[in-house]
Amino acid sequence: MKGLGIFLISYLLISSCLQRQNYLEDALRLAGDNRAELEKVLEHYSKNPADSLKYKAAVFLIENMPGHFSVNYPDTAEYYRQINSLFDVKNKTRPQTDLLLRLIKIDNQKKELAYDVKTIQSAYLIKQIDMAFETRNYPWTKSISWEDFCEYVLPYRNAQEPIEDWRPLYRQRMAALLDSLITVKASDSLVCATFMSLFKPSKFVLVENGFPLPLKPSLYMEMNTGSCKDLTLLSQYVMRIAGLPVTYDFTPQWANRLLGHDWNSILSNRNAITFQIGDDVPFGEHLRSKSDDRLAKVYRRMFSLQKGSLPMQAPKEDIPPLFNNPYMRDVSEYYLKPVDIQVDLIYAPPAKKQFAYLMVFNNRDWSPVAWGRIRNRHVTFSKMNIGCAYLAMYYDDGRFYAASDPFYVDNEGKKKILSPHIKNKESVKILRKYPFRDVAVLKERMTGGKFQIANRADFKDAITIHTIDTLQNMTFHYVILNDIPACKYFRYLSSDKGHVFLAELSVYNAEDRKLAGKIIGTDGSWENNGFDKTKVFDGDNLSYFDAPITAGGWVGLEFDKKEQIKKIEYLPKNDDNHINVNELYELFYYDRQWISLGRRTGDQTHILNYDNVPENSLLWLRNLTKGREERIFNYENGKQVWW
Questions:
Q1: Residue 381 pairs with which residues in a beta bridge?
Q2: Helical H runs in 411-454?
Q3: Separation of alpha carbons 400 and 353, rounded Å
Q4: Residue partners of 641: CB distance under 8 A and separation at least 6
Q5: Cα-only R_g, the chain
Q6: Secondary structure of 473-537 in the HEC alphabet?
Q7: pLDDT digits (tens, 9 = 90+) for 52-76
Q8: How many alpha carbons fall within 13 Å on the CB side of residue 541?
């Protein structure tokens, strides 16, 4: 259990023993010199029978307090000064914000953990309990169970933030709105949606990693920059003032893309309604709006110690940081139709192990999402999602080691092991390094688009020389033309639904000379977003012309003299994950580690051919020139199958 405080380890070892049930006494003993402060709280609520529930609430908080702490550094004050300065910068872009966050340095070697049980003051805890109980009289809180109240409304902290008297600050900010909702006896979901809109940032810059340290609760009210984690923490502060049982749920790693995700759900009639402050989708549609992202596992942050957590199993081995948390509950069944996956551990561990871990790929490496107890060289991972690729691994001294071959679970729940057949090779044709998600939409926008030539500037004499009937993928396309008349003007005319949506466009003569000219076409861009006609000729595969009109937008060239066009080269709006000319790629297959199958340079076929690939392999194509979006796949029936 490396990473947990020594006194917390002893507490978990005691608490995980079935013969020991006096968690309150264990916590008070661990409080040391601060025991008297905690006993003052218990004494305060034991005097009046009317405070019996508040006494129970105090017991709940103290019993579960030992593992909660604040992270302190000698330069914490300077850290918060820099955060305030960051918030003061107006009209920030995401790259600017990422840079500013990277400039904020924290010396982790000087970190100190201030455990609540050893530091929290009686006056603070009493005030927190009293204010939490005020919410039990609101019209929408009458049906909230005692368990949900204790777990989701009562807690005084959300993460490892500094202890702060935050409830009065939030209550004052929301007083008028809260009182109006009480007057109309609003429903819990209406209250949640209303409060969410109250704190919806108007110009919020969403970044991937958020802040190096949790903010003070008061700072979350002012933030205009942060990650989904920061928005989720803000929601919990806000909704606790309303007495709503709002959870902090998260997936540590998406199964089919980079990063994980954090969000809130409100427990309404035992259903979990998902949302996040800053949503641009209707209330309750937060996760459904991310239907292209595949969950493998979902966890919930809790205030109470979770007996089913890995630290509570008292393992005699290292635990990966993700699972080294006794306050985390598996709630996958609320989000998935989960299956239990039994895995044969065909490779020996580097040392004797009790537990193995199930991993998904994070675009660069394997990332843990679940754990299971080893029994007779097998392990069962419970409540996992279908439609995902996995790998079982051991954890030892900070590193993961392969325990099985990779495999995927198809949409029918059947497991398919991807064990490379070294003696049986196949030829593969690779078109991309990452799946393209918007193919159907872009095909519809491009189908019907026309390439035209003319000798009049108004194109009243236009001749259509090519029409896009269909597109197989979003890469460069080439059109070879024969016997086309010389022309002064050339253009691409968008389809009726197209907005143009062209990223790059070039034309060549019979000598394969690229023709230059004055850029002509529809002026402006959609909602003045800056993606105008010049983007079609800027050499950037990711920029494109987003025309200000849906139908009839166009872009082209006016030549200095009449030219005869032999070839058109065009690229629709895309993600630049196709095979590009003159970029260097390397293909790998997995056999306990990633093994190279050689490097190739992209050419104008935009296809990479490999003839030496072991059958039944899990593959990974890397672009060594640029980019970071790369996904694993296997090859079936002549196609890449993405995971």
A1: 341
A2: 439-446
A3: 12
A4: 633, 634, 635
A5: 30
A6: CCCCEEEECCCCCCEEEEEEECCCCCCEEEEEEEEECCCCCECCCEEEECCCCHHHCCCCHHHHH
A7: 999 999 999 999 999 999 988 887 8
A8: 15
Under a CB-based contact definition with an 8 Å cutoff, are residues 345 and 404 in contact? yes
| Both structure tokens of 639 | 């196609």
From first CA to last CA, the distance across the chain in angstroms is 32
- Domain range summary for the chain, segments of one domain joined by +: 25-244, 311-417, 427-436+578-642, 439-572
- Dist CA 597 CA 586 (whole Å): 7
pLDDT score, position 208: 82
Which neighbouring-strand residues pair with 231? Answer: none
Parallel, antiparallel or unpaired: strands 205-206 and 225-226: parallel
Quote the CA–CA distance of 272 and 488 in Å, as a whole number: 62
Q: Which residues of 434-458 are buried (b: 16+ CB within 10 A; e: fewer)?
A: bbbeeeeebbebbbbbbbbbbeeee
The Cα-based distances of 545 to 69, 446, 503, 534 in angstroms read: 51, 12, 6, 7
Beta strands in 46-122 (DSSP E): 69-72, 112-115
- d(CA 390, CA 360) in angstroms, rounded, equals 5
pLDDT at 14: 54
Q: What is d(CA 189, CA 264) in angstroms, rounded to the nearest whole number?
A: 13
CA-to-CA dists, residue 11 to 65, 156, 401, 430, angstroms: 11, 21, 30, 54
Per-residue model confidence as pLDDT tens digits over 571-583: 999 999 999 999 9
Q: What residue has token string 């029978």?
A: 49
Phi-psi region of 527 (alpha: psi -120 to 50; beta: other; left: phi over 0): left
Tokens of 249: 């749920």
Res 19: pLDDT: 42
Residues of the chain with pLDDT under 70: 1-21, 108, 200-202, 269-270
Q: What is the mean pLDDT of the chain?
A: 92
Could you tell me if residue 82 is left (phi over 0), alpha (psi between -120 and 50 degrees) or otherwise beta?
alpha
Long-range own/partner contacts, residues 259-267 (CB < 8 A, 24 or more apart) = 259/208, 259/362, 261/228, 261/290, 261/293, 262/227, 262/228, 262/229, 262/231, 262/232, 263/228, 263/232, 263/287, 264/232, 264/235, 264/236, 264/239, 265/334, 266/188, 266/189, 266/192, 266/239, 267/148, 267/152
Provide the token pair at 166: 């935050």
- Whole-structure pTM value: 0.90
